[in-house]
Amino acid sequence: MHDRPPSANLSDTERLNRLRLIRSDNVGPRTFYALLRHCGDAATALERLPELARRGGASRSGRICGADDARAELEACRRLGVSLVAPDEAHYPPRLAMIDDAPPLLAVRGALDALLRPMIAIVGSRNASGAGLKFAQVLAHDLADAGFVIISGLARGIDQAAHRASLAAGTIAVLAGGQDRIYPPEHEDLLFSLLETGAAITEMPLGHVARAHDFPRRNRLIAGASLGVVVVEAAQRSGSLITARMANEQGREVFAVPGSPIDPRAAGTNDLIKQGATLVTDAADIVNAVQPIMARPVALEESGDDYSEAEPAADERARIVALLGPSPILLDDLIRMSSASPAIVRTALLELELAGRLERHGGGMVSLI
User: Fold this and answer.
1) Residue 365: is it exposed, middle or buried by C-beta count within 10 angstroms (0-12/13-18/19+)?
2) Which of 65, 72, 202, 212 has its CA 20 to 30 A from that of 237?
3) What three-state secondary structure class fits 189?
4) pLDDT in tens, 340-361
5) pTM (2 decimals)?
6) What does the alpha-carbon distance between residue 176 and residue 95 come to, in Å, rounded to a whole number?
């Protein structure tokens, strides 16, 4: 499940190389872990990026982050009090480290011990009703009293209400931009207040201004770090429903607060309940649901996937590419239909991804760009 080797106590050199790797073109979290599996370490992966991209059909190699740029980012982080931590290092949220696309280096700052405590996510409408805001505050306060850390996205509406109600106990803000580019700007004071007892996390580099497509990426971190996600208010097509879907895909609990059927701000939450989300009317509903989960140990699983020694022959690569198209296909189906080994198929997909020709979808599906 997890294509990552152990990374405890990274050396300064390895941290620098891993930062260079994740900041290079066409290298996302899944590709990053695949490269480490295939190459053994970040330094070797950096050396092989041009060759692998060429094999995937790239006409020219993508940009590889330079060592000077990575050193400058690390120094800027140090000045701001930000640490870049790997999945099994201290202060990396344990449950976030379990997801397939966990950030290879997570930018964290604040009272970092809060990141190791059990988290419940509370999300909802930016244009929330007064009743929704009040319930989010009560729920966050009661969950904090029960020993949980509230995690949310620092957005207007329900998110900020949940953060403010749990400031004293510690709350986690997940940012869509860099640690120095807070969105929305009017919540900068809230962020600085929560850093005293809680923390802020992001996978984005310093200076990155959040764009529309960054918010779903942020949402997967909110869901992944938590035991479960509570949606207080959400209209149809709300970003909060994306968070709930990701939580479901990651095996997290999904909770929804019911609302009036004539209030469009409750349409999404009511639908979640119809689809099987746990109905919530007080904090006890959540505590009772997650207590059995908390009793299970949290540990990174070693993957059985082997990329080493897996170099596709020209005919194998051609056969795999021919089976791909704009319509997503399950990886397992691709392996079966190609008659190639899983390692060969995964390596061919890695090459295509580095060439910018492959798109990964949820549920283990891929398509050709």
Assistant:
1) middle
2) 202
3) helix
4) 999 999 999 999 999 999 998 8
5) 0.91
6) 19
